[in-house]
Amino acid sequence: MRLAVLVLAATSVAGQTTRVLHLSQDRNKYQWEELTRDLRDITEVERVSSDPTLGALSIAGSADAVAAADWMVRQLDLPPGGPFVGVHEYQLAADDAIRVLYLNHCGSMESMQFTVTAIHGLISSRHDNTYTAHTNVYNPLNAIIVRGGRLEVDLAAWLADQLDQPSGVRGPEPHESQLSDGTVARVFWLTQSQTPQQMESILIAIRSIADTQKVFTVPDKRAITMRNIPERAALAAWIVSILDADGPQHETRYRFVLPNDPDDTVRVFYLAKSLTDDEQTKIAQRARTSAGIGRWWLDPKLGALILRGAEAQIAAAQRELEKTKAR
After folding, report:
1. Hey, how many other C-beta atoms are within 10 angstroms of the C-beta on 136?
2. Is residue 145 part of a domain?
3. Which of 77, 110, 127 is the last residue of a domain?
4. In angstroms, rounded to a whole number, what is the distance separating the alpha carbons of residues 102 and 121?
5. What separation in angstroms does the CA of 135 have from each of 21, 131, 132, 212?
6. Nearest Cα to 145, choosing from 210, 75, 93?
7. Distance between CA atoms of 277 and 295, rounded to whole angstroms?
8. CA distances (Å), 130 to each of 34, 136, 166, in order?
9. Mapping DSSP to helix (H, G, I), strand (E, B) and coil, where does residue 22 land?
10. In 139-292, which ranges are E strands?
11. How many domains does the chain have?
12. Under 8 Å CB-to-CB from 53, ≥6 apart: which residues?
């Protein structure tokens, strides 16, 4: 159906435009509220009110904000299932755009929330209590609405393309995106049957060992997303390859040296399986304390201990661990 647009007043107040939009799709109370909230958050119109009995929205604000809201309503006033062909993007300024991304393979609100969190977390930074990009959801269409600069909008679209896959299917190659600010976005597709708790443990390892705050799990996709400078992304990839493996790997894979600092070494050790969780923790604490190592991670269920420090510190920790037959 076509969307009917009626302009009630172009300049009711100096610099302000008011417009009434008549929508074609039926909505319940909560969907009307979601639509009006999305319009306020993304387009920054000054006022949005709805009249569900008439199927109408009244929007007021600057001419640019009202025009953006008009466009956005057209993208969201569609029947479930589309059609959603083409790129749905609205350019507000040279480096300010709105993009609507329609997902086809988010089977639950929880799945949608994990995907949105991963996208928002990777594209946005917080400065002066405001975010560099905005991300909202319109659940009736499984749509994610993003507003940001060119880098943020394109990264959101790439991430959505990676994550919007049927169960058991990976996103298209490559699973890495080089960004104009010098950072790298990565999606790691786990090969083992990792539980949400195990995925969270891998996330903590990446966060603490690879100095990466922008890292998120998408459990139903068995995916981990991250963004950092290339050498930290490479370290994160190494951590995933070690922890998402069917048991300990060849000894030569247990060591990673950061390329810009040959004295900054990461090493994984596997503790004896006969040890209890408490015993493993005490051994790990003793090894890292005696060697003066500040960054470490332990997963007792895997018996895996990762240490990061200078080469001499790693060697000292290894000597301490050998006392307990670490391998």
Report:
1. 20
2. no
3. 77
4. 18
5. 23, 10, 10, 21
6. 75
7. 19
8. 21, 15, 34
9. strand
10. 143-148, 176-178, 184-189, 215-218, 223-228, 255-257, 265-270
11. 2
12. none
Report if residue 30 sits inside a domain.
yes
Distance set, CA 133 to CA 42, 86, 136, 206, 310 (Å): 10, 22, 10, 24, 38
Token pair belonging to 108: 């639950």
* 32-43 pLDDT per residue, tens: 999 999 999 999
| Residues in a beta bridge with 126 | 131
CA pseudo-torsion sign 327, 211, 315, 293: negative
* Average pLDDT for the chain: 89
164-178 pLDDT, tens digit per residue, is: 999 889 999 999 999
Q: Cα torsion at 5, 149, 118, 214 (round to 10°)?
A: -160
- Which tens digit of pLDDT belongs to each residue from 226-267? 999 999 999 999 999 999 987 665 555 789 998 877 679 999
What are the φ/ψ torsions at residue 316 (nearest 5 degrees)? -65, -40
CA distance 122 to 227: 6
pLDDT at 16 over 60: yes
CA–CA separation, 139 and 137 (whole Å): 6
Domain of residue 38 covers 1-77
Instruction: Tell me the C-alpha distance between 229 and 281, whole Å.
Output: 31
Q: Two tokens at 68?
A: 């953006």
Q: What pTM does this model have?
A: 0.89
Domain stops at, among 77, 94, 110: 77
